[in-house]
Design brief:
Elements lengths: L14 H15 L1 H7 L9 H24 L5 H10 L4
């Protein structure tokens, strides 16, 4: 939704006063608060994208489980428990 604001310079009007009128008009229109509110928001993912992400995470989990079962990767709980048992000096 685009809102165009048009300000023309009146006779005997300085640039500063024209700029002031423009900023007041922009503030009154409410364009800046709306744009700033949606500045960092993300769009909702499509159902297909959600499905692809879930499938890829499931595939990664099964691959890690397979590597752990074959002994090619250390179990995550083993590494966490080792770091907790170290003594502090």
């Amino acid at each position: 939704m685009a809102i165009n604001l048009e300000i023309s310079k009146n006779s005997n009007e300085s640039n500063a006063s024209m700029l002031r009128r423009f900023t007041k008009k922009v503030q009154g229109s409410g364009v800046l608060p709306r744009v700033r509110s949606i500045r960092y928001s993300k769009r909702k993912l499509s159902p297909y994208k959600v499905k692809v992400q879930r499938l890829s995470s499931i595939a990664k989990k099964t691959e890690i489980e397979e590597l752990i079962r074959m002994g090619k990767m250390a179990d995550r709980t083993d590494t966490q428990s080792r770091s907790r048992t170290k003594t502090k000096k």
